[in-house]
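Obj.: predict assembly geometry.
Materials: sequence records (below).
Method: joint structure prediction, all chains together.
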Amino acid sequence: MKPLKVIVATLACCVAATVGATEFQALDRTAAAQVVNPSTHTVPTIVALWSSECVHCKKNLKLFAEMAKADRRFKLVTVAVEPQFAGLAEPLDRLAVPGQRFAYGPESPEALGYALDPKWRGELPRTYFFDGKGGKTALSGVVAEATARSSLGLQSPP
Amino acid sequence: MVSSTLSNATRRAMLAVLGILLVASAGAAEAQQAQHQHGGAAAKAARPELGTSAAFAPDGTLYAVTKDGQHVLLHRSPDEGRSWEAPVTVNADPEQIAAEGENRPKLAFDADGAALVSWTRPLAKRFTGEIRFARAADRRHFTAPLTAHRDRQEITHRFESLAVTGAGKVVLAWIDKRDLELAQTANREYRGAAIYAAISDDGGRSFRPEQKLADHSCECCRIAITGDTDGLPLLMWRHVFEPNERDHALVKLGADGRPGAVTRATFDRWRIDACPHHGPSLAVAPDGTRHAVWFNEKDGEGRVFYGRLKDGRVEGQRALGGEQAAHADIASAGPRVGIVWKEFDGERTRLQAELSGDGGASFSAHTLAATGGASDQPRVIRRGERLFAFWRTENEGMQGYWLE
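Observations (raw structure tokens):
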């Protein structure tokens, strides 16, 4: 690679690293229905709902981030159930939570919550586990690693 | 020099990338700055924070308090909510204010008609805050806000509730984590948070030192305060009973402000380590009946319930509305009991009500309004013998509906 291309590529990477960590995708009703649809997930996937006001969410996010780091067989997607604001990414960045990040878009929170799950009543954390074969498990509250693994169909070590 | 070996086009390309990097870095610095200020509610400008409280003054005029940026505003309606006059600023100096979900500025009036306003001021560290209070004898010119608690640690003092009791005392109660912090320092387990309260004997001009009402409250659900038949304050909140049952507890404060025994109010036994963000509401009828509404998961289903709390048990417990019913509020006036809640029907959020004219023996159901956008939790407030539903929505603003 020519020196110029190296410089440009390095700078571009710096840009991506700087802005990518705080990038949220606005969740609309279509995206909400899609992200919780088992047929969307062809590999084991965790969809973790959280908010900046939820004191119990950190435990799950920490666990899922650690699991994702050690086991590349599953995907992690996070959904902040509140609109994006400066600083929303901070809890995710501090725990180095990987994966696609959503935050509520401009539609009403009730409409988005309903599209995610009519059975969900707003309690957090709320997590959806997909085994990648059409299986889906919804759990509210702090989750143990063994429960997460079995819900993903990943009982065997990575 | 590198530049001497580069063509103009190359230099332009590099400058463009450097420009992007600078913009991105500036954005990140801005975000970091905002993060530093963030205390749970900072810099949330994407959508108006709708958390609003309303109350009738002793002369029968309707007022409401809202948040606008870093100010609490007091609004007056000359016509029972059909129109609103230009608001008055409560806190002259800007500060962070929590005003969404279970958090909102609160409003009450003392017997002389002075406006009393409280709010939670989030601090820089996440989940921390202070309970703030201001008073306006003429409902226009507010005193400088005071912090209601002596404890000034940068910890959780949040989710405050405000009430004026029958005896004229001003009660502020909030969720406080000083006991949790102590336990964590000593490496001890501690369930949830605690409920603390401060009482004012002089209409909110000053507050006595706060005292603990109970250990082991849930962390982020609003607290209900109402007056018992003797005028003394009764408080109900979501508690964490052993090992992790998120049911509700009740306590009555004595004339000296000291708490009586904490009793269990509901028995749904929702075992979960989670934040329901769904606090209760309580009303006492003239005959002493304690009417309550609350949210819990029972038999695997999350529902809003109504019931009468009596001698450590619940009478007449039933689910309100459908599966989407949420955030109910309750009030009583003479023989009337009014309940409001909101309920999403798949497209719109409806404001639902139930009204009893016979002390809760029977109720009639009503749909009062609907909105296609975001909405605050609804409230039911009292003026004399009448009950009034109040609801702020993003699209329609602050609206009121007499329950009759």
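Conclusions so far: Helices of chain A lie at 3-20, 29-35, 57-70, 90-94, 109-116, 145-152.
To do: check interface contacts against the pulldown list.
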